[in-house]
From TrEMBL:
Ig-like domain segment(s): 11-128, 247-322
Primary localisation category: membrane
Protein name: Ig-like domain-containing protein
Swiss-Prot/TrEMBL keywords: Glycoprotein, Membrane, Signal, Transmembrane, Transmembrane helix
Superkingdom classification of source: Eukaryota
Source organism per UniProt: Labeo rohita (Indian major carp)
Origin organism lineage: Eukaryota, Metazoa, Chordata, Craniata, Vertebrata
């Protein structure tokens, strides 16, 4: 190239056999170009559009309050187009700016894929989805296990199947005295209920106590006393423990690199969280989590899709990202190069010294022989 002010100070641009080669494209290379042939009137025009390629694709799953799943897909790049598929069947597609979210029904089960592309690259992430545990929870007073309720969501608590036969008294055992809060139910309606005063979101329908917005204070030990309406006053009682837990929030996963290891962090919010790390479907580690958990990966073998799934007794969340070997540190390369230079210098000096020493010995020997 001669007289080229178009690519001044850009040694990565050259011409070989009639082909202009730009080894490192920059944004400024976008534009409209015209090629003039000096020996003819022929003109050729071309528009060049520079796009940032697709970054890593990240997919996460969150369960909503009604048990409906929400899948989120995010990536980086220019002019992104996404497409969602479930078990190979197209769900939805369109343009994307950084992320896209799709709603799935509570029975969704299988492999969901988010594919992202533009004019210069393509990437895809597939994860396994399972039906969400619904946050609209149901418990019974005759169950032996505790009743778990999701904070801020709905709880259906079955007391009896036929309210016409019984007068009911629901007691929350706070001090195990006669002063404990009580709620009386007659003919399927709440009466004299100091247990749920000033809470219009609590009602009784067909023998089921319905709390439309669970609060922390709903945790506790309850006793239900049942008295047959046409009897001698004999009572039976049933006990139930209610435990309120905050559901899982969004799951965040990030990767950081050290000199020889990848460190992956997973964080979320909620009560009594249990985490599970998997790499390419193989379980790496699991256990209880308080806000976040970190796992160290071997740099050479940590390649593929790593997932952090988080759950408690009322909800579930998961996020999957791609992991690749950490880039080599520039400082490490410079130090290594310096060490090699020192080593080669020492070897060269030793070689020169040995040649000098051997040469001097020969001269001394010749002098003695003469």
């Amino acid at each position: 190239m001669r007289d080229c002010d178009l690519y001044n100070n850009r040694p990565e641009v050259t011409v070989i056999n009639g082909i202009l080669i730009i080894n490192h494209v920059i944004r400024a290379d976008s534009g409209n170009y015209r090629l003039d042939f000096t020996d003819s009137w022929v003109l050729e025009e071309l528009q060049v559009i520079v796009e940032a390629p697709i970054g890593s694709v990240e997919v996460s799953i969150i369960c909503s309050s009604s048990g409906v799943m929400r899948a989120s897909c995010s990536s980086e790049g220019d002019q992104l187009l996404y497409s969602w598929t479930l078990n190979g069947k197209m769900l939805v597609q369109g343009p994307m700016v950084r992320d896209t979210t799709i709603q799935l029904n509570e029975g969704t089960d299988g492999n969901i894929s988010c594919s992202v592309k533009n004019h210069v690259s393509h990437a895809q992430k597939t994860i396994r989805v399972k039906p969400c545990p619904g946050l609209d929870l149901f418990c019974r007073f005759d169950q032996s296990d505790p009743c778990y309720a999701a904070l801020g969501h709905k709880l259906n608590l079955l007391m009896v199947l036929d309210t016409s036969e019984y007068d009911l008294m629901l007691i929350k055992r706070t001090n195990n005295t006669q002063d404990d809060p009580v709620c009386r139910v007659k003919y399927g309606r709440m009466k004299e209920c100091d247990l749920y005063n000033n809470r219009p979101e609590v009602t009784v329908i067909n023998g089921t106590l319905i709390i439309n917005h669970v609060i922390r204070a709903d945790s506790g030990n309850y006793t239900l006393r049942l008295r047959l309406r046409h009897s001698d006053g004999t009572e039976t009682s049933r006990d139930l423990q209610v435990i309120v837990e905050a559901p899982i929030g969004s799951v965040n996963v990030s990767i950081s690199c050290s000199s020889n290891q990848s460190s992956v962090s997973c964080s979320s919010e909620g009560d009594q969280i249990v985490y599970n790390w998997t790499l390419n479907g193989i379980i790496l580690e699991q256990g209880p989590m308080v806000r976040n958990t970190i796992i160290q990966l071997n740099e050479t073998s940590a390649i593929g899709n790593i997932s952090c799934s988080v759950k408690n007794n009322v909800s579930y969340g998961e996020k999957t990202i791609s992991v690749k070997p950490c880039p080599v540190s520039v400082v490490f390369v410079l130090v290594w190069c310096f060490q090699m230079m020192v080593l080669l210098g020492l070897l060269g000096g030793f070689h020169i010294y040995m040649r000098h020493t051997s040469g001097k010995k020969r001269e001394d020997q010749k002098a003695e022989d003469s």
